[in-house]
Design goal:
By secondary structure, this protein is an alpha/beta fold. It is built from 6 helices and 5 strands. The longest helix is centred in the last third of the chain and has 16 residues.
């Protein structure tokens, strides 16, 4: 039985599939969504323990999805959220602050194994 349920929201199917597989190999239960709207729907229905989301997606981006989740009530306020991005802009960082993200990872600087390590660290730190 998986200890934690994760939702991976990524519009790049190959990246979503590979990351999801790596997480399943680590015994996580993994749900997948191809975009922000689908991610929001699945998140509110399934209430995963963590959401890993790409930021740049259309029509709803990962930050807009995260904001709607944060505004959805007690679960949304507490759920762990990790953002993955290809951009590292000041404007994007300003949008991140009120979302209380647990991690912000730049894809070009972070391998998939490192994403898995970050996921484990965030869960470990939450237990403290």
């Amino acid at each position: 039985m998986a200890e934690h349920k994760l939702l991976v929201v990524e519009d790049s199917e190959p990246l979503r599939k590979v990351l999801s597989e790596k997480l399943r190999d680590e015994k996580f239960e993994v749900l997948e969504a191809a975009g922000g709207e689908e991610g929001l729907k699945i998140a509110l229905e399934q209430k995963p323990d963590m959401i890993i989301t790409d930021i740049v997606m259309f029509p709803m981006d990962g930050l807009e999805m995260a904001q709607k989740i944060r505004e959805s009530g007690a679960w949304g306020d507490e759920v762990l959220i990790i953002a993955l991005t290809n951009q590292n802009s000041t404007e994007e960082e300003r949008r991140l602050v009120p979302l209380h993200l647990n991690a912000y990872l730049v894809k070009a600087e972070t391998g998939l194994d490192d994403v898995v390590k970050h996921v484990k660290e965030v869960f470990k730190n939450k237990k403290k």
